[in-house]
Design the sequence.
């Protein structure tokens, strides 16, 4: 993974591209599309992020990712979400617990 000086947006673009998504800029966010899935990717704080779309991914430095997850759990947004914690060695994915996810 890139050095700490690499922007989170570029880190997110690289991660989603490597996962096989077609990534485009959409205002201050990224739109990652693959097959039927569209993920709105943001580096914004949960309170400042858009609420459109059914799937959202918040990208943060790894030392801040748990805090972002906790704020999302408290906010209970109306969309499915995950948090990517990015550091020099790669990334980790933080999901809400299973009881937080809406039933299909």
Sequence:
């Amino acid at each position: 993974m890139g050095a700490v000086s690499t922007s989170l947006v570029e880190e997110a673009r690289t991660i989603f591209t490597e996962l096989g998504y077609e990534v485009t800029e959409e205002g201050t966010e990224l739109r990652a599309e693959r097959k039927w899935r569209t993920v709105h990717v943001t580096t914004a704080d949960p309170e400042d992020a858009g609420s459109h779309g059914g799937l959202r991914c918040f990208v943060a430095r790894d030392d801040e990712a748990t805090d972002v997850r906790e704020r999302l759990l408290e906010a209970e947004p109306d969309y499915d979400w995950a948090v990517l914690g990015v550091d020099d060695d790669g990334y980790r994915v933080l999901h809400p617990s299973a009881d937080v996810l809406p039933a299909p």
User: Anything to note?
Assistant: The chain has one domain: 8-94. Confidence is low (pLDDT under 50) at residues 99-104. DSSP finds two helices and six strands in the chain.
